[in-house]
Amino acid sequence: MPDPMRPYGGENGADRVKRRRAALVDAALDIMGSPDGGAISVRGVCRQAGLTARYFYESFTDVDDLVGTTYDVVVLDIAESAQAAVAAGGSSPKDQIRSAVGAIVRRIDSDRRRGRILFSQTLLSGKLASKRMDAAMMFAALTIQTSGTHFEGAAVQGAAHFYVGGLGQVLSAWIDGRIDCSDEELIDLCVTMMYGAVVELLPQNVTGVE
Length: 210
Prior knowledge:
This protein has helices at residues 13-32, 42-49, 53-59, 63-88, 93-110, 112-119, 126-146, 154-175, 183-201. The protein has 210 residues and is mainly alpha-helical. The longest helix has 26 residues, at 63-88.
């Protein structure tokens, strides 16, 4: 029996598997991230990727496995973009909020498929609901980490979840066309709302929070 991992056409077996896996994930992004949030199936995703079912099962056990992997890829991409923006931005709460929100909004605006998978309410499968809960906890933790010493105790926990939940709802409405504005207008709106909560939570003796 031929070795499926042997080099072929200048590409080794491991690289072929990686390429096919990436093609299936991108096909899942196309299907789930479409405006109507199309249903996903092994046959449909293989047709979209130009592969046979044999290659689907080489990388995934079932459709839920592919959906979960695709969601994880999107979340990691968004989280890394936000972290990099915060690290490169200013140190004040407002600067950090603008850096993180700007990175998230611009990333999903550049690829609306990612935004729909993360936030759109038209995609409400059990697998995605579970993944979204996990992602919300992760983004809340990232918010806590970037808040430094600005907040303490319950304030930082509550603020983090408030930001993540509220931002997700606003982005969902924007992606679905229920909020009509440009990406820069959306960033300004979100920063204004989120920073207002920061001002209320900061200790009264803290100055220079801009």
